[in-house]
């Protein structure tokens, strides 16, 4: 049956009908009073989501644009940065920082393992000359399904006294608690196609006062991603360049839905879906890829032993019109990933687990009792 595709990937994520309908409105002038009202309203909503009174700026671009903007606006040529790398996106920030001529010190962990906060503490404490100007962390490492301990790492950065904490929260914001001010995070980057329940196209950068102070001295090249321009415009309820107007309509609708649900319920829902997906996979006999207790609330990575993960993923799509994510780089064919981020309900998670289980049975690869995955998933959802 056509037009029944269900997205169970870490992005783009499913979009509510209310948000799609909002996008269908006629565009309005981006210098009009009507648009200014939307910018003012969405700015307040974004501050609520980030749990900050500071600036949260909107760029027409991807989550990578948000992170690049966050890095290049607070650092200068030759600065030393400490970057966590335990997956594809950690790797990306290392490459991005080096592309701008920054001196990058890398703290690594094996894919599937979380970053060690003690390694950051040791490196920061050893930096008596205060040469490290920023620590760059991926909170939810989408490629491996691992959630890193951003709170503890941010506390070590704060103790350093000089370094800024720059966090990729692309798949954690709107999925779990990220209180920017309470944790002392200086820069947060995120993207619309994740927990925001929107199509791709908008990027968000939240900045602390310390980040803005560093911005005054930054000499890295920038024009479209010059956040000082966005800040000036945002304070006038505007945007420095032509924005994606209809995505602003979607943003307002999506954030209204999130506010109606409430942060605590949003976080609890994602935690419940993580528990249900994990329970279902374990009951089927499929090992999780992320280390025990470190699974992301946005996505569950599964490493099926003796099974071609790509072939199984393809079969699930063909038989049930459910799209799962594959493994990246050396994990291709070895890992598949179940997205449970954003506009996802209990039914979606239960259906995905049932489809995986039915596919394995059909392929003669089911290692547990028939129906064990669905039963375990349903039990976890009931407990939540």
TrEMBL record:
<comment type="similarity">
    <text>Belongs to the class-V pyridoxal-phosphate-dependent aminotransferase family.</text>
</comment>
<dbReference type="InterPro" id="IPR000192">
    <property type="entry name" value="Aminotrans_V_dom"/>
</dbReference>
<protein>
    <submittedName>
        <fullName>Aminotransferase</fullName>
    </submittedName>
</protein>
<dbReference type="InterPro" id="IPR015422">
    <property type="entry name" value="PyrdxlP-dep_Trfase_small"/>
</dbReference>
<dbReference type="InterPro" id="IPR020578">
    <property type="entry name" value="Aminotrans_V_PyrdxlP_BS"/>
</dbReference>
<keyword id="KW-0663">Pyridoxal phosphate</keyword>
<dbReference type="GO" id="GO:0019265">
    <property type="term" value="P:glycine biosynthetic process, by transamination of glyoxylate"/>
</dbReference>
<dbReference type="GO" id="GO:0008453">
    <property type="term" value="F:alanine-glyoxylate transaminase activity"/>
</dbReference>
<dbReference type="InterPro" id="IPR015424">
    <property type="entry name" value="PyrdxlP-dep_Trfase"/>
</dbReference>
<feature type="binding site">
    <location>
        <position position="337"/>
    </location>
    <ligand>
        <name>substrate</name>
    </ligand>
</feature>
<dbReference type="InterPro" id="IPR024169">
    <property type="entry name" value="SP_NH2Trfase/AEP_transaminase"/>
</dbReference>
<feature type="modified residue" description="N6-(pyridoxal phosphate)lysine">
    <location>
        <position position="194"/>
    </location>
</feature>
<dbReference type="GO" id="GO:0004760">
    <property type="term" value="F:L-serine-pyruvate transaminase activity"/>
</dbReference>
<dbReference type="Pfam" id="PF00266">
    <property type="entry name" value="Aminotran_5"/>
</dbReference>
<keyword id="KW-0808">Transferase</keyword>
<dbReference type="InterPro" id="IPR015421">
    <property type="entry name" value="PyrdxlP-dep_Trfase_major"/>
</dbReference>
<feature type="domain" description="Aminotransferase class V">
    <location>
        <begin position="27"/>
        <end position="328"/>
    </location>
</feature>
<keyword id="KW-0032">Aminotransferase</keyword>
